[in-house]
């Protein structure tokens, strides 16, 4: 594209970044992200979510958190996917405290948790023996929404 004087747009860059992340080529994905920025193509929430997800899945959660902070500094607002991805990555890394803080930040910023967010939160709390906190989440959630079967399965297990 570049050789033909066609400038890639955000959709092109997001596709390239996603492909690199899918093949666990995270450093190259980050370089592509930085190249995109250097070409005055500003990253959107999809670009950030893709990289954050890649880093979290590769157990490089700290880099995912750093991207989340950078995202906020650039004025890109995280969405449900952003927060849910970070919460899951933090639980998988064993950082229960930060996972809970990210969930609280999500709620306080007005980003609505979805069923997947709650299931990841409950699963993470139960797997880390925070059953009382899981029950508090479940009770507050069931007041606001219809409770789903997977949540009860997490608690039973």
TrEMBL record:
PPR-type repeats, residues: 9-43, 44-78, 79-113
Which key words tag this protein in UniProt? Repeat
Entry-linked InterPro entries: PPR_P_subfamily, PPR_rpt, TPR-like_helical_dom_sf
Is the keyword Calcium in the record? Answer: no
Query: Which Gene3D superfamilies does UniProt cross-reference here?
Result: Tetratricopeptide repeat domain
According to the UniProt entry, the coiled-coil residues are none
Query: So which domain of life are we looking at?
Result: Eukaryota
Please state which protein family the record places this protein in: Belongs to the PPR family. P subfamily.
Name assigned to this protein:
Pentatricopeptide repeat-containing protein
Q: Native species of this protein?
A: Cardamine amara subsp. amara
């Amino acid at each position: 594209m570049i050789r033909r004087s066609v400038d890639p747009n955000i959709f092109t860059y997001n596709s390239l970044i996603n492909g690199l992340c899918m093949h666990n080529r995270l450093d190259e994905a980050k370089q592509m992200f930085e190249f995109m920025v250097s070409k005055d193509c500003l990253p959107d929430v999809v670009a950030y979510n893709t990289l954050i997800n890649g880093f979290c899945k590769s157990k490089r959660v700290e880099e995912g958190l750093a991207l989340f902070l950078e995202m906020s500094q650039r004025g890109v607002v995280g969405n449900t996917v952003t927060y849910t991805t970070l919460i899951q990555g933090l639980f998988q890394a064993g950082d229960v405290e930060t996972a809970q803080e990210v969930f609280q930040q999500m709620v306080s910023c007005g980003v609505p948790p979805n069923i997947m967010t709650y299931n990841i939160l409950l699963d993470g709390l139960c797997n880390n023996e925070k059953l009382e906190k899981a029950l508090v989440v479940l009770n507050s959630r069931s007041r606001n929404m219809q409770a789903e079967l997977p949540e009860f399965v997490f608690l039973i297990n």
